[in-house]
Design brief:
six-stranded mixed beta sheet, 4 helices, 6 strands
């Protein structure tokens, strides 16, 4: 089994390339209520584009459940907004792996409205 122990640290470093290395070439990502993104490169590009909308983020992992071929991760994620404010929201990430133990299906269940809300 491939170790994904550092995957959320890679995300928190805003390193889209490091995160994409965990993905299968034909991976599908769905982030919040956005349309699914298909393919490792497109997923990487989508994450990199999201990083441009914030100044930073950090995950606080609460719980993780792992079975062969799938994992569920509950966390609180603090986003550093472009205006200097921090907003923390609950997040559940579910990912499924392929025969090579690369992530084939990556889903992030989150409400980003508070992150981008006007004050």
């Amino acid at each position: 089994m491939i170790s994904r122990a550092d995957m959320f640290a890679d995300i928190d470093r805003m390193d889209a390339d490091a995160w994409a290395a965990y993905l299968a070439p034909d991976a599908v990502m769905r982030f919040g209520n956005a349309d699914p993104v298909h393919g490792r490169e497109a997923c990487r590009d989508a994450l990199a584009a999201f990083y441009e909308t914030i100044d930073g983020l950090r995950h606080r992992l609460i719980e993780q459940w792992q079975e062969p071929g799938a994992a569920i991760v509950e966390s609180d994620v603090t986003y550093m907004r472009k205006d200097g404010r921090e907003v923390t929201v609950p997040v559940v990430t579910i990912y499924r792996t392929d025969d090579q133990d690369l992530i084939a299906d990556y889903r992030v269940f989150i409400d980003l409205a508070p992150v981008f809300a006007e004050e």
